[in-house]
Amino acid sequence: MRWRKLSMEKLKFILTLMLIISLSSEAHIVSETKKMTRLHFYLHDVIGGDRPTVWGVAQCNLTDVLPSSFGRVMVLDNLVTSGPDPDSEEVGRMQGTVGQADLHEKALVMLLNLVFTKGEFEGSTLSILGRNPLAAESREVPIVAGTGAFRMATGYIISSTYYNDPARVRNVYEYNAVVYHMDPNVVSLRR
Ligand SMILES: *[C@@H]1O[C@H](CO)[C@@H](O)[C@H](O)[C@H]1NC(C)=O
Residue 41: beta bridge partners? Predict the structure, then answer.
């Protein structure tokens, strides 16, 4: 029996190691320096008119055949505001690439950066990466990273359609975000 050969000393060492490993994986210090921020904003998806902010850049032979529009890729730079009116206070821009990535239903793969251009978070960014099932009433998309005020961010966004333009010029989406991120003030104080 191999276990018999394990001396008491070795066993103690292993137990201590396991204890250290399990303690160091606890997030006490991290949680002290982490903050939670809730954000509420509106996204203006300008798909028509004379100044669209969403542009189709590629598609495949299936795109026009399938109801899911599979294969369409778009690049966007959308205005983000604090209210549903495009003339309300500017928060930032949502920039990135989205693609129709589902053969059966309309669902997007989203690869987006929200760059804050005004207010207390100006210059900071949030990186969004996930699936957006467009037919769902409320759609959850993960926040995977951030910079500036949102360094080390993780979180999620619940988005819903605020306004669907029958003329297909400007759709408005409501975004509710919960972000866990480093508190830069706490971190610099500790240095
Ligand atoms: C796409 O359609 C074109 C025109 O019908 C055809 O020549 C081409 O082979 C198709 N491509 C694929 C990948 O099926």
Answer: 175
Q: How far is the CA of 75 from the centre of ligand 1 (A)?
A: 24
The pLDDT confidence band at residue 184, using thresholds 50, 70 and 90, is: confident
Q: Is residue 128 part of a domain?
A: yes
88 against 28, higher pLDDT: 88
The per-residue pLDDT for 2 is 54
Is-contact 157 41, C-beta < 8 A? Answer: no
Is residue 130 assigned to a domain? yes
Separation of CA 120 and ligand 1 centre (Å)? 50
Q: Is the residue at 49 inside a domain?
A: yes
- Looking at the chain, the number of H-run helices and the number of E-run strands are 3, 9
The total of structural domains in the chain comes to 1
The neighbour count for residue 93, using CB atoms within 10 Å, is: 19
CB count in 10 Å sphere of residue 52: 14
Does residue 60 register a pLDDT over 50?
yes
61 alpha carbon – ligand 1 mean position (Å): 6
| 8 A C-beta contact, residue 176 and residue 188 | no
| CB atoms near residue 26 (< 10 Å) | 9
In a domain, residue 11? The reply is: no
